[in-house]
Structures are given as C-alpha cells and as structure tokens.
Amino acid sequence: MALRIVFVVACALIDPDGRVLLAQRPADKAMGGLWEFPGGKMEPGETPEATLIRELREELGIAVKEACLAPFTFASHAYTDFHLLMPLYLCRRWEGVPQPLEHAALKWVRPKDMADYPMPPADLPLLPMLRDLL
After folding, report:
1. 5-133: which CATH topology?
2. Which of 10, 15, 29, 62 could anchor a disulfide with 39, C-beta 3.0 to 4.6 Å?
3. Count of other CB atoms within 10 angstroms of residue 80
C-alpha cells in the first residue's frame, strides 16, 4: 500500500552570527519535545513560499518577504503512516523578533551544535548540509 505524501515546508532562519533558529515541538503534539526548523503544512493551492510566509507569521510572529526565501535542499522521509516531502529554505532577513507562539521554546544554535538537539528523523540529513554551508 502506498503511503500518502505530506508536503511540509521548513525554513532555516540564519542570524548575523551564522546561528540557525531551532523550535521545540510542544510536548502534547506528535514528536513532542523534538527540535525542528520552523514551518508547516502546505494548504491546497498554496506555494511553498506562501506557506512559509504564513507559518513564520503564525509560529514566530515575524514578517518574511518572498524575495528573502532561498530554496536550499529538501528532505524525503517515510514515516510509518505517511511519506514526508519537505523543502528547506534559507532566510537571513525578516522583520520582528522570533517568539515561540506555537512552540515550547526557541533556540539560536551554531550549525556544529545542531546535532546535540534531538530532531525528527526527516530533519537529520539536512544538518550536514547546513554545517557545510555555514
């Protein structure tokens, strides 16, 4: 039986010091307590960029312009009951200060230290690519 494909878009927000923002999933959600890149599920008819603009506003209270989102890589991972396809964008410019509006916590992390934070399996292959870039 084929797994349904779930499209999720994520963003690596990068501060001027080269740190990446990680967000901790709330304890009461699936994969609660794990750290992830902010983002979320695409709505029908929504572009990946529009999804990120909406999700970053809802989750972090920041404003991002489409021109500031750069496609970087993607994750493709089979979970037990669905297959995740997740483009990862980079963003170095936004308006506002990220706040944990829908997460348990936020943390600015150096790329070399990201592996110290437990993350969902789909996110793990993205870490070496970010380390090499930054």
Report:
1. Nucleoside Triphosphate Pyrophosphohydrolase (3.90.79)
2. 10
3. 5
